[in-house]
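Final paragraph of the annual report: two paired records, presented back to back.
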Amino acid sequence: MNVRKTMRELLFNKKNFRNLALCSFLWFATIMQYEITLNYSYTTSLSYYDDSYVHSLVELTAYVSSLFVFLKLKNKRKIFMVSNMFSVIGGIVLIITDASDSLPLLNTISLFISKFGASFSY
């Protein structure tokens, strides 16, 4: 296997380069969104341990449901895009509602939606 030929084919073929750029961007966006949800993890009115328990339940639900969805359905690209959109929309709402503390329920719901989307896309 010639590594130089493979890298040349990957970088100079437009379709391969586009797919590589798109996958890299989606991976970066998912990582950043997950980190944003980790920074906002303890904004609910629960105690530290109860809050960690609820967040772990959301992540576990996302991981298990993504396993079943990816095993059963044929078109995995659309599911991945939908989960990324959940993550991005939840993150945008989370950042917008963070400026005002008058909407704690919307802040919590958007945090859980964003965390579910980011965990689902992993």
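The closing record of the year follows.
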Amino acid sequence: MTSKGLGLQTRMNLGTNMGAIARADAAALLQHVPPGGADLAYLDPPFAVDRKFSARPESGAVRERAKGPVAYEDTWPSLEVYLAWLGPRLEVAYRALAPHGTLWLHLDHRASHEAHHLASRLFGRDRFVGEIVWVPGNGAKARSGLAVTHQTLLVFARGRDYLWNSDDPALREPYAKTSLSMHFQKTDEQGRSYRDRTANGKTYRYYADRGRAIGSVWTDCPAMVANTPLMRESTGYPTQKPLKLLDRIVRAASREGGLVVDPFCGSGTALVASARAGRRFFGGDLGESAVRTTRARLEEEGVIYTYVEDREVEGASAGGLTTARPPAPSPASSPGALEKARG
């Protein structure tokens, strides 16, 4: 169905749909998430890399990204201009978070330190939970000097008691073989290996099959699965993040049925991960290529969602609300526009 002339303020009523996506700037998008309604806000904005990013062509003899349409342009006159742009988008994300919600800001060394300061001023220094160091595993590219091979996810909590699903299997990893052989030598009546540890007069039991909590350095979510045409997960969209990474974030910081917002959805990985995990989602991007790619992935997953076509993005005043079900157009076949928005 299609309803014309609806304003964004009426568009967050998802009904029975899993979620909604819109082609809109992040600031406009997040202003219309119900205040305090989101478990998780995942922001993967431009990194201030100072270059254009192209999508891989879907077909043809040459399928190099350099030959494809431009998906977004990440160029700024200065870092100060970039931070002035990022700040208001952090503010609306902050307002969207529930008291137990967290914001995950995904950047790299080019702007993470300055953005950390920006977010700390907004949330308060005591609301900085910590940072995740993600190692994509693509290898070092620097020809000289220090090669930076990781990205950083800054995690800020809206309130003191934030949601963290520590028992979810996505946040557990096997014990080391040495630890298993040395410490887990007892077996309970169900046949499960365990060890007991006593601290401050209290005894704690650890089971081998439950594994241990993962740390803050993630090396087991390789980017290659999302960025090579040899893998089915890859869409050809530049800077696509692997599903395993977003699945872990979604499961860590949101409840089943809770709301996940991603205003720089890019290839749509966070929205797909949310739908698979039984979460509701609200996402968007200013880039046409990003929205096309996201819609195509959601269609392939069989997710019923609400699509908001914000005509103000294209210079008109009217907007539309569509319950999306027909196949979305192929993302790689769309002409690339130069847009300073990404995911």
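The longest strand covers residues 97-107. This concludes the annual technical report; the extension proposal builds directly on these records.
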